[in-house]
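Backbone-to-sequence.
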């Protein structure tokens, strides 16, 4: 991106990051319940509405196009230096629930959890993550506040899908030039993948047999991760908070369904099939 004039670069970023798409369906999850039960270290997957989200959707073949890490409230951050760093980047109420994310045009920033109240969100919870490890993962992303977003990373992932022999040498992906801890630009998934790699928490490792020594885990290059990989990883539990709570053994029995014959499509349009059939007659 360094060869692109600054004004053109800024315009491109604004065009790519602007939210222009309506949500494809009503919000499925219960935000009020989720905000009380979300834990420090949880990964939030978001179904994005921008042009860059469509690019990531095409790359990953998944609706989950953005990832953020939940860090709790200011007083949940145990390290006073890190707590002050968060406060420097976000001067909101101390009881505000916060996430750290990397956004195109903004870099690594602090965002209130409430920003995603109307988005389609899924929680991926790292299985067995203890309190101290959650603090370390949270501290890793906090320490990178202000680092710029890597649009190059998105292009690298896209190029990675093409057969290497057909691409000119200078177009070939630089993904495998990755060096841990020296990244000057981060995408949302790379930031969080690095955070979990820093405590050697498995995401999607290669597991192979080592003869009499048993199994060997080989860490996956963090630059290869997309948001959907946190959903796909067997080491993360998928936590959902449906609109209908689970107070009873069979909550579906209490759902107030519309009358028979009423359906909706994926865009929220409601159809009455009974009326349509009558009109056809």
């Amino acid at each position: 991106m360094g060869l692109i004039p600054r004004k053109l670069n800024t315009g491109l970023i604004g065009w790519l990051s602007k939210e222009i798409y309506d949500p494809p369906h009503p919000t499925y999850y219960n935000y009020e319940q989720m905000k009380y039960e979300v834990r420090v270290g949880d990964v939030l997957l978001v179904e994005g509405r921008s042009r860059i989200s469509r690019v990531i959707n095409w790359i990953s073949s998944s609706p989950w196009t953005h990832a953020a890490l939940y860090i709790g409230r200011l007083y949940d951050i145990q390290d006073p230096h890190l707590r002050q760093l968060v406060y420097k980047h976000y001067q909101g109420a101390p009881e505000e629930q916060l996430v750290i994310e990397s956004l195109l045009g903004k870099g690594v920033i602090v965002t209130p959890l409430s920003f995603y109240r109307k988005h389609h969100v899924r929680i991926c919870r790292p299985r067995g993550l203890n309190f101290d490890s959650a603090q370390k993962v949270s501290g890793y992303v906090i320490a990178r506040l202000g680092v710029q977003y890597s649009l190059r990373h998105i292009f690298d992932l896209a190029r990675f899908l093409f057969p290497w022999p057909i691409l000119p040498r200078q177009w070939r992906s630089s993904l495998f030039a990755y060096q841990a801890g020296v990244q000057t630009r981060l995408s949302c998934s790379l930031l969080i993948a690095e955070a979990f790699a820093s405590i050697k928490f498995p995401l999607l490792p290669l597991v192979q047999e080592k003869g009499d020594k048993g199994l060997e885990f080989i860490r996956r290059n963090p630059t290869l991760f997309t948001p959907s990989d946190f959903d796909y990883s067997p080491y993360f539990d998928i936590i959902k908070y449906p609109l209908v709570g689970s107070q009873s053994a069979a909550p579906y029995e209490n759902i107030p369904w519309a009358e028979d014959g009423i359906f909706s499509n994926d865009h929220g349009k409601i159809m009455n099939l009974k009326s349509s059939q009558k009109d056809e007659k």
